[in-house]
Design goal:
Binds ribosomal protein uS19. By secondary structure, the protein is mostly beta strands. It is built from 3 helices and 12 strands, in the order E-E-H-E-E-E-H-E-H-E-E-E-E-E-E. A 6-stranded antiparallel barrel has the order 1-2-5-4-3-6. A 6-stranded mixed sheet has the order 10-9-8-7-12-11, with no helix packed on it. The radius of gyration is 19 Å and the shape is elongated.
Amino acid sequence: MTGSRVTIGQIVAPQGLRGAVRVYPLTDFPERWPALREVYVGDEPRPRRCRFVGFVRAGMPVLELEGVHDRSAAETLRGRELRVDAAALHPLPEDTFYVFQLVGMVAEDPEGTRLGRVEAVEPAPAADVLVIRLEAGHRARVPFVRQFVERVDPAAGRVVIRPIPGLLEP
């Protein structure tokens, strides 16, 4: 997330000769792409109008962006992130969170003792894993399941971890 903008993808390559770009999606909502009408490219201060062209291999969306009319112009955007205003985020079901909401949260035990801070969220086959930088300096990986994560409180900026022996050891 950058300010009140959230990254939803990254331009990976030009698509064709007329300036379209192929995007690596960083969202779990493929239905957002056909409805997308404007997007911030990198750190540009104003959004660009865009038009969804379709999906190519591996579910990558293809977009036409305002001001990009040929392959050379599209090539200059390779590697740039695409962002939307946080207000345009897809609504989530209850007890579901965006990664950017979790990163930076204080991790506490059920008694309120500070354990550390959530540094990252790693995808894993069974369940995502919270990477917590502990007060002791090392990192711990905590599966994001109810057995270990008792509560997430976005308003307070904290996540309550129920540690079992060995869970937070280096």
